[in-house]
């Protein structure tokens, strides 16, 4: 038996444990698919062909030995190129030849402990700043649903790899929606967990605590399984939420919930408008939740001026990365401009932004005394075309980003969980998504609701057409 691309993470792990397929066979198939798609999708920055085959052979030996099974033993998965993988460089979307790192980051280490084979590192824009995955370091990563469009960013490579069936699931990171946005634009489930749920070590905090590691998969169960495998803390992590078994929540009845449908974008300094083709799909999800027995009404969290707590943290984080960059002359001019702003805001404004978080927790946390979950658009627009944002000025890029993606970033300030679910397609066939948002440590509740929707909508049965490659075109 050789599993096809429709088999997800849990089914692949089950087939391996049952002896129906070998890890080597799966890894060989995965490598072949990556090679065939790289010219059209360009999802990967690094493919660990030799190392992954060696890891697969080691997994096969363990699979035939008696003893306790690991949950992902022999399963090939991908990680984003902001995560350290021993023996590989961590360029994080930047140009230049980076040295290999000596040790796995904590999230990668935990995936290996779960038995996963790290097949490669996926593309991301420079320092993960933008909702597109393009740049001079690696070219453009394309959306499997329409290769003329971006898969989003900054975890666009991971999203493209999962959406195309190259791997059953992948890790990404989310600093302003960078898991949820590409999940929305590639018809995937994307979990942004509670801050600290998945360690960002060797950084105790990434981008002043707004960035967390999360998961992308085709189903809720697979996204939760990868989340559980990667979860846990390094001894020196500053954020250590209580342990959860998120997978156990999948399929459980959440009961009748009070759900706030929030369609109004949080305050931004430039205009943002929810496009009708996205609004329609999100409202349809709200109607589906009502039909499932939940109480749904329009209501918006009291965000206030939450953006004042985001910008200093985001730009100070970029300034930190630029200060460590081995080739600053090769960085995008927008990156350098953002770093200059971050250095200006890195003193008192940054301290004020960090202090504001507790007040925001109290104010927005109070909203969850009236509601259990927020349903909101993940983006205001469908994915833009490749190149649409690449050559813009910094100000024009910011305007375009805010116009397309005004909904995701407040939950990064709060550090609370959010889950993107597929909401359908525009009339042009482009995927859009909606996010389920909750208070601290609410991942189990969010995946219960997401799984309810999945059982109704069966979104994992929809696939993009296989990408056209030079080989298939010639045939």
UniProtKB/TrEMBL annotation:
PROSITE patterns: AMIDASES
Keywords tagged on the record: Hydrolase
UniProt keyword Hydrolase present: yes
Molecular-function annotations in GO: amidase activity
Residues in Amidase domain copies: 26-446
InterPro entries: Amidase, Amidase_CS, Amidase_dom, AS_sf
Enzyme Commission code: 3.5.1.4
Hydrolase found in the keyword field: yes
Similarity comment text for this entry: Belongs to the amidase family.
NCBIfam families: PRK06061.1 (NF004717)
Protein name: Amidase
């Amino acid at each position: 038996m050789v599993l096809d691309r429709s088999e997800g993470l849990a089914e692949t792990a089950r087939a391996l444990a049952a002896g129906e397929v070998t890890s080597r066979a799966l890894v060989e198939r995965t490598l072949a698919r990556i090679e065939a798609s790289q010219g059209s999708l360009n999802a990967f920055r690094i493919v660990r062909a030799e190392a992954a085959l060696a890891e697969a052979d080691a997994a096969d030996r363990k699979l035939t030995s008696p003893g306790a099974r690991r949950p992902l033993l022999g399963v090939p998965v991908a990680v984003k190129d902001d995560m350290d993988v021993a023996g590989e460089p961590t360029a994080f979307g930047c140009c230049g030849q980076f040295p290999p790192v000596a040790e796995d980051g904590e999230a990668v280490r935990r995936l290996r402990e779960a038995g996963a084979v790290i097949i490669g590192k996926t593309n991301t824009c420079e320092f993960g700043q933008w909702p597109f995955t393009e740049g001079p370091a690696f070219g453009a990563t394309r959306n499997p649903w329409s290769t003329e469009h971006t898969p989003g960013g900054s975890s666009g490579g991971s999203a493209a790899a999962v959406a195309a069936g190259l791997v059953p699931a992948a890790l990404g990171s989310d600093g302003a929606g960078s898991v949820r946005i590409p999940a929305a634009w590639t018809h995937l489930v994307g979990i942004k967990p509670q801050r600290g749920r998945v360690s960002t070590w060797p950084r105790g905090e990434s981008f002043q605590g707004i960035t967390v590691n999360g998961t992308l998969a085709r189903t809720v169960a697979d996204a939760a399984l990868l989340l559980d495998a990667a979860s846990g803390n390094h001894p020196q992590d500053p954020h250590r939420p209580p342990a959860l078994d998120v997978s156990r929540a999948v399929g459980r009845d959440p009961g009748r919930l009070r759900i706030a449908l929030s369609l109004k974008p949080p305050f931004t300094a430039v205009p943002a408008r929810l496009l009708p083709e996205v609004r329609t799909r999100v409202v349809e999800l709200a109607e589906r939740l009502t039909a499932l027995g939940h109480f749904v009404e329009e209501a918006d969290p009291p965000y206030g001026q939450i953006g004042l707590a985001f910008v200093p943290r985001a730009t100070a984080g970029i300034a930190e990365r630029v200060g460590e960059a081995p080739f600053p002359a090769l960085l995008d001019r927008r990156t350098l401009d953002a770093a200059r702003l971050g250095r200006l805001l890195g003193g008192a404004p940054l301290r004020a932004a960090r202090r504001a978080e507790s007040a925001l927790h109290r104010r927005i946390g109070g909203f969850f005394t009236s509601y259990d979950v927020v349903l909101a658009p993940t983006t205001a627009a469908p994915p833009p075309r490749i190149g649409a944002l690449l050559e813009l000025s910094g100000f024009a890029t910011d305007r375009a980003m805010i116009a397309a993606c005004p909904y995701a970033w407040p939950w990064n300030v709060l550090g609370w969980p959010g889950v993107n679910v597929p909401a359908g397609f525009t009339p042009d066939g482009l995927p859009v998504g909606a996010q389920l948002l909750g208070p601290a440590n609410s991942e189990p509740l969010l995946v219960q609701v997401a799984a309810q929707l999945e059982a109704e909508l069966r979104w994992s049965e929809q696939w993009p057409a296989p990408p056209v490659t030079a080989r298939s075109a010639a045939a």
